[in-house]
Amino acid sequence: MKNRQFKDAIYDQFARIGKAVSSPKRLELLDLLCQGPKNVETLARESQMAEANTSRHLQVLLGSRLVTNEKQGVSVVYRLADDEVCDFMLAFRHLAENRLAEVQSITRQYLEAKHQLEPVDQEQLLSRAQQGEVTVLDVRPEEEYRSGHLPGAISVPLEHLQSRLENLPKDQEVVAYCRGPYCVLAVEAVNILREEGFQAVRLEEGVPDWKTRGLILENNTADEQGNR
Questions:
Q1: What CA–CA distance (Å, rounded) separates 115 from 68?
Q2: Would you say 80 and 34 are in contact if contact means Cβ atoms under 8 Å apart?
Q3: Which end of the chain is more exposed for a tag (fewer CB within 10 A), N or C?
Q4: pLDDT tens-digit series, residues 159-211
Q5: 183 included as an active-site residue
Q6: Fold of 115-226
């Protein structure tokens, strides 16, 4: 193989990853899978795509070896090929945030409209949570909570929040978090809490961010979840 052939062949392989992540929807699917394994039906629902379209995007990610899959009963479950893929997603996100002013502009406009520009400082939150000064809510779906969550966090999926408000203390600040800075679940949760008279704020970062910082997370089985 000549020098030029070698370089062309190598960069052609690199480009496979670039092509795989060139779709906004495929980026969203990878972001969802950073939270834990999910079947096609769940990924379709969370990304608001038809299952057939979701499957096509997943096949592209599978072909680039960014994800793997396995059959579980009648469902096909997808997961990231390894933690390096999630690390790549975080680095990709940070690059976009640092190089594209539009990212900050879009985010600021959305959060201003929701009156939620003041995310909670992570280190301060952990200290206050350990001292029992705040109530921390994980508003992601329960299966994501079980895969890993902040120590002491209570699982209250957004869809169940309204029915569980009476169980939350009103004399304590409530901090809600979800999948990361571009997840809207915590934004909606804070809106609901504030409308009901709670002092509520949003934690911007999510589980993938905490993992990269070496933060120890908790895991819960289904039985433990039911007893919280």
A1: 39
A2: yes
A3: N
A4: 999 999 999 988 888 999 999 989 999 999 999 999 999 999 888 888 888 88
A5: no
A6: Oxidized Rhodanese; domain 1 (3.40.250)
